[in-house]
Amino acid sequence: MKSKRIKFALFICVFILYGCVGSSKSMTLDISHNMKNKQVTETSIKDLSRNFKFANTNIKTMTFMANDQNVAKTVSSIYQVRNTDGELKSQKAIQNYSEQLSHKLHQQQRAKERKIQKEKERKARMTFTPYTTTYGVDCYGCEHQNGRGQTSLGVALDANLGVMMPNGNWQPGIRYGKYYVIAADPRIPLCSIIKFTNHGLSGSGLQPNEPFYGIVLDRGGAIRGTHLDLYIGLESSPSVQKVQNTTPTAEIIRLGGQSGPRSCSI
Asked: Using one digit for the tens of pLDDT, what is the confidence trace for 238-266?
């Protein structure tokens, strides 16, 4: 078993030293020359790390080999590792370099874990269960005339023409760009983008089993806390219907984003 491990380690070592990922022609010739002379300097090992883009599996393999006493001794007996002054470094040089690689890999792994944890915490803070309703431009308390009004941000709404875009053109329907217009609590900044899942709504492009994205362009006297109000054109419009009884989820994926006095970044 020990013999097989050593043979496997030597095979991997030679495979890596020859450049499994690829290198320049001159580097390959230098390595080949050193291999024939059974000498690989400490400098050449470091040059490999700079000039070869090793996969993590190869780095981990080298680290394992160097930290394994039996393997390291066998490698040392074949490839005499020397420093630039010609001093024999052998097993110690391999182990030192292995420790550096191990430390680097450990730091990278810890950084990745911290990033994942921060993302989980961010999602937890920005996710809630909303109470979702719908409203029209002609809602009670809304300022409107002949089916036309505007949101709290100042974006014009028209039951027939649609929603006015930042460039002044009307977009038919109930969306601002690709986002559905919603009203939210003042604690959620205008122009924020919210992702809705498990909403159970259908119509105007909405599918009950597919998420949709809304943009906060409006407020409302009764819109507080987790209450979110979806714009549907007119109060009497059947364009959006609740077709499934579900427990929806809302996730704020962008806070704010106002790009002008009456417009948002889309």
From this structure: 999 999 999 999 999 999 999 999 999 98
